[in-house]
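tool_log.txt
---
The assistant was asked to compare two proteins side by side. It first ran the structure predictor on the initial sequence, then on the second. Raw inputs and outputs are pasted verbatim so the downstream comparison step can read them without reformatting.
(1)
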Amino acid sequence: MSLMVIGTGFGRTGTDSMREALTMLGFGPCHHMWEVMAHAEQKRLWRAVAKGGAPNWAELFAGYKSCVDWPSAFYWRELIEAYPKARVILTWRSPESWWESFEKTILPAIVGSTDQESLGIALVANQVFGGRPQDRAHAIAVYRNNVEAVLNTVPAERLLVHKLGDGWAPLCAHLGVPVPHEPYPARNTRQEFRAALSPQ
């Protein structure tokens, strides 16, 4: 099994809904940060990569047909080369609305973490945002630069920009599959995000 779909959008751009949508369309299992958090081996493998280890994509994505969200979204340039037949999806929302969501969900989880091995710190805070995730102007600039890089790098015929609220039609057309009868999933609201991170 190799990756058939690669997501390039930051967390809080509808990635968990996209994960569920891809699974419903037959492109699951879909790799997402929740997968890393749920599996000790995934944590070990990705932490090694975040520290500069050479990634073994086949090992990191063993059993997965698609990937969205961090950590994989940070490595999209390498992944689109490693899987040249995979379709590419950029989940997107306006930079300002992205920050508003990020600031209330992922950012507190990173800032509040006491685990120095955390991928949230090693990858998201330090590598994605250069150690300045709390700097609104800087974080928004990083977000914009990622969007621009994807648009300038991925051939148009291989890329779908999927905006919040776009639903099934453009996604199914991009992947060449029929539109399901079920509604497009709406997952991982702020409340759900916080509940998932709360101690059980």
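(2)
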Amino acid sequence: MSLMVIGTGFGRTGTDSMREALTMLGFGPCHHMSEVMAHAEQKRLWRALAKGGAPDWAQLFAGYKSCVDWRSAHYWRELIGVYPQARVILTWRSPEIWWESFEKTILPVIAGSTDQESLGIALVSKQVFGGRPQDRGHAIAVYQANVEAVLEAVPAERLLVHKLGDGWAPLCAHLGVPVPDAPYPSRNTTQEFRTVLSLN
């Protein structure tokens, strides 16, 4: 099994809803931060990569048909080359609204963690945000730079920019599947996220 869909949007852009949507459309299992939190072997593999290990993408994504959230958002440049047939999705919300959600959810978890090998610190804080996730201007600039890089690097015919609220129609058209007879999922709100204790 190889990846059929690669997500390039940062966490807090609707990635958990997209994970559920892709699963409903037959592109699951979908790799998401929650998978790493739930499985010890996933945690071990991704922590080793974050520490500078050589990536074995086939092993890291073994058993998954799609991926979204911080892993694929950070490594998308490599992934779109390794999986040239995969469709690409950029989940998006305005930078200011993204920051408001990030500040209330992921940032407190990072700030409260004492485990320097946790992916919240090793990957999100240090690698994605250069050790400055709490700096609003810097974090928003990093977010915008990622969006611009995806738009520039990924051919338009391969890429879908999926904004919060877009629902099924553009996603299903992009993936070439029928629209399901079910509401588009809405998952992992700020309140729901606050029940999560760590980003391990």
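---
observation on (2): The CA atoms of residues 80 and 86 lie 7 Å apart. The first helix runs from residue 15 to 24.
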